[in-house]
Amino acid sequence: MARMAAFTHDVCIRGAGIVGRTLALLLARQRLRVALVAPAADPASGHGDVRAYALSPASRTLLQSLRCWPDERAATPVLAMQVHGDQSGATEFSADALDVPALNWIVDVPALERLLAEAVRYQSDIDCVTAPVAAPLTVVCEGRASRTRAELGVEFDTTRYPQHAIATRLDCERPHGQVARQWFTADGDIVAFLPLDGAQGHQVAVVWSVRTERVAELQALDDAAFAARLHDISGQALGAVQLIAPRASWPLLLARATRWVGAMPARPGESFALAGDAAHAMHPLAGQGLNVGLGDAAELARVLGEREAWRPVNDMKLLRRYERARQGDWLRMSLATDGLQQLFGRAEPAAVLLRNWGMAAFDASGPIKRRIARLAMGTA
Question: In the beta sheet, which residues pair with residue 128?
Fold first, then answer.
């Protein structure tokens, strides 16, 4: 189908993070002309970045299709996951039990971003621009603090958790063994150790969800004292640990945009769609935030690629197909993560007893446990 003569591009993507670049590459593969709004490259970009994401097999397949999957040192397969309650409750998942090569992969964010940026540079149907351009379809991938979403008049319904996340990286005395570990503590903290640096690595990415009033105290600790706290919470699972990266912190929330698609105000012939954190946010305890965002990119690209020949990319019936599909997926995942956060955030004895009993019962549940694991992996 010929593109509209009044426009130089079919799609303008505002936001050049992982979701935005992935979507740009998927659309360019369909021979759509894409304008990707990205700031000028920062020579210091990636230095001191402690982010690491748990990417599902579905996300891995998507990124591999774009030839943007990092090497084994930057994408560590997780062969098992151990979850510990605040008393005797515990559960474990294993790749062997599910007959899969890995439960997920812990991916170093700077490495993934470099691969995506390089792929975009070599894609002739993507133009990197520093300001938005007019296009039949604008996709907003600017993150949870999106200015464009606010300018479009789309509300972001937000529930703030009484927690912040603190992220950093540790070097450990013992190798991680490709095991992701998570601890729920009696005072409501959630600590995750995510294996890094390949199969034989000794490094882990840390995400520590802590009550907001304790953030300042923990951030004020020197590196040795902070590492000692993590050493105690982990029950010395990996031996002595030391910080090897700065600490980053951000507030945790559950949020969803009231509309994910719509017509551009005062711009006839133009529509918009939201994707990634511009559309939704959830608690990181299940590590699903980026997987859901990449699912947005994959679904929007699929809907546009399979559209009827006579439908333009800004057709609202078309975009609502995307909205319905992705809102359902986000709702299922957000209900699960929010329910776990609410359960482990309570200190009443009955709640403590219930959650630890529930973890033990879940660990022995057989088919239910396998079903939940496959849902989290995106392979159900």
Answer: 36
